Amino acid sequence: MGEVSKSRVIEPLRIADAIEQVRHVFIRDLVLPCDIGVHPHEKGTPQRVRINLDLAVTDDGNPLADQLENVVCYEDVVTRIRAITGDGHTNLVETLAERIAQTCLQHPDCHTVRVRIEKLDVFADVESVGVEIERKSGS
């Protein structure tokens, strides 16, 4: 019998890297109401979405001086995501993921972002459906 394939979705992510001078900033399982969907019954009726982010940011080894302004602040990222999900109707989870990725990449120290969006209430017999994207600065 052949080997069982491994899904990249469930493999651990390796983003932090001393040689490449990269720090891993992450946000896990942020659940927010969002007016999202292409079907008439989805418009104007917020649905729960779960958002997971992985950001690769500069870690040049310089002292941080224990100062918030020297890092990517995950509180700021969460605040921006809340603003995006609360900013009117979006048809596609792909569009929502792109908007979130672009806002993360606005930070000059963020090189790469992986965004996973899951709609949690679409099917009674499915935990979630959604999309995952990865974007790089300058792309």
Describe the protein in words.
It is a single chain. This protein is an alpha+beta fold and 139 residues long. The protein has a single domain, classed as 2-Layer Sandwich (GTP Cyclohydrolase I, domain 2), CATH 3.30.1130.10. The protein is built from two helices and four strands. A four-stranded antiparallel β-sheet has the order 1-2-3-4, covered by helices on one side. Helix 1 runs antiparallel to helix 2 (93-105). It is elongated, with a radius of gyration of 17 Å.
Structure described in brief:
Helix content is 18%, strand content 31%.
Q: Helix/strand/pairing class, anyone?
A: alpha+beta
Q: Roughly what is the average pLDDT, rounded to an integer?
A: 88
CATH C-level class is Alpha Beta
Name of the CATH superfamily: GTP cyclohydrolase I, C-terminal domain/NADPH-dependent 7-cyano-7-deazaguanine reductase, N-terminal domain
Find the CATH topology.
GTP Cyclohydrolase I, domain 2
Enumerate the strands of the largest sheet in spatial order, edge to edge or round the barrel. 1-2-3-4
How far is the first residue's CA from the last residue's CA? 42 Å
Instruction: Please summarize the sheet with the most strands.
Output: 4 strands, antiparallel
- Count of helical segments? 2
Q: How many individual domains?
A: 1
Extended strand count: 4
- Provide the helix percentage: 10-25%
